[in-house]
């Protein structure tokens, strides 16, 4: 009896945690989009329906009841985009975050050469900033970025400063779009990223920055952007601009986030 009680409690906790994770992902998807307004609209209709039931207002309750009854199909139509992104997000996650799991065991630590050369990347960004060369660099963490790599040209080159700079050099055929880095390899160039429609992004930021916000809100990748206009370097993670004091601080933060 006691055992069943305990089992039920544990399952309840798992259940609550799973719902929390689900709500978090739904929030991440609808954050800053018009979908949040639709979602609020649906909640209001549901509450009014419950109120009409409570007050026994039969006619209105029936009409709203019918509406709620077919609501699930309506939801699929209205949230088609978000459902697509959600499935994409689940499908492209490396289950078990293999990399992190392996790193738990000290003796199985990743070998030095697969560690991302942060210094080379940040120094390249610094040089590109000084010469007002626009750049968009995405570093993969546990979410698989195959779906964006497919939109660009696949590569297999070790990360180093001159190569990054020459890829983004204005006359280079590879400068457009995003550069994808996995471990210490550049695995794609000219990748097209999903653009965020978060209305909170300041207007001075154009598509390059919106693309960096887009990929970091849909995956756990991190992004570095060098603005062609101002030469400023931005660091993005979890769909937000992450603050840093200077290049040294940026390197430290990147190393921390990639460890
Ligand atoms: N969805 C996208 N995926 C990848 N790269 C993109 C995407 N959209 C735009 N870019 C890249 O960003 C470049 C510049 O875009 P835009 O000028 O709108 O950006 P921005 O944020 O204002 O940056 P900057 O400050 O450098 O002008 C494009 O030429 C392209 O290389």
TrEMBL record:
GO terms for biological process: cAMP biosynthetic process. It comes from the Bacteria. Its EC number is 2.7.7.85. The chain crosses the membrane at residues 6-27, 34-51, 63-79. One of its GO terms (molecular function) is diadenylate cyclase activity. It catalyses: 2 ATP = 3',3'-c-di-AMP + 2 diphosphate. Keywords: ATP-binding, Cell inner membrane, Cell membrane, Membrane, Nucleotide-binding, Nucleotidyltransferase, Transferase, Transmembrane, Transmembrane helix. InterPro entries: C-di-AMP_synthase, CdaA, CdaA_N, DisA, DNA_integrity_DisA_N_sf, DNA_integrity_scan_DisA_N. Residues 80-249 form the DAC domain. It is an enzyme of class 2 (transferase). NCBIfam families: diadenylate cyclase CdaA. Catalyzes the condensation of 2 ATP molecules into cyclic di-AMP (c-di-AMP), a second messenger used to regulate differing processes in different bacteria. PANTHER family: DIADENYLATE CYCLASE. Belongs to the adenylate cyclase family. DacA/CdaA subfamily. Probably a homodimer. This is Diadenylate cyclase. The lineage of its organism: Bacteria, Pseudomonadati, Bacteroidota, Flavobacteriia, Flavobacteriales. The gene is dacA.
């Amino acid at each position: 009896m006691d055992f069943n009680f305990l089992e039920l409690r544990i399952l309840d906790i798992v259940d609550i945690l799973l719902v929390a994770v689900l709500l978090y992902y739904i929030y991440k998807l609808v954050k800053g989009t018009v979908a949040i307004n639709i979602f609020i609209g649906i909640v209001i209709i549901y509450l009014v329906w419950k109120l009409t039931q409570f007050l026994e207002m039969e006619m209105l309750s029936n009409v709203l009841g019918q509406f709620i009854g077919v609501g699930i199909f309506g939801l699929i139509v209205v949230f088609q985009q978000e459902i697509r992104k959600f499935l994409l997000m689940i499908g492209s996650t490396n289950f078990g975050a293999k990399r992190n799991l392996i790193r738990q065991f000290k003796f199985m630590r990743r070998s030095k050469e697969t560690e991302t050369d942060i210094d080379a990347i940040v120094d390249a960004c610094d040089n590109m900033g000084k010469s007002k060369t626009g750049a968009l660099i995405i570093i993969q963490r546990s979410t698989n970025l195959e779906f964006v790599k497919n939109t660009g040209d696949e590569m297999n080159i070790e990360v180093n400063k001159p190569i990054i700079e020459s890829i983004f050099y204005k006359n280079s055929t590879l400068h457009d779009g995003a550069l994808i880095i996995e471990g210490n390899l550049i695995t794609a160039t000219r990748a097209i990223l999903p653009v965020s429609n978060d209305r909170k992004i300041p207007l001075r930021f154009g598509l390059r920055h919106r693309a960096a916000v887009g990929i970091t809100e849909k995956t756990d990748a991190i992004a570095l952007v060098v603005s062609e206009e101002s030469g400023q370097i931005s660091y993005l993670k979890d769909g937000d601009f992450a603050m840093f004091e200077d290049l040294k601080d940026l390197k430290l933060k990147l190393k921390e986030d990639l460890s």
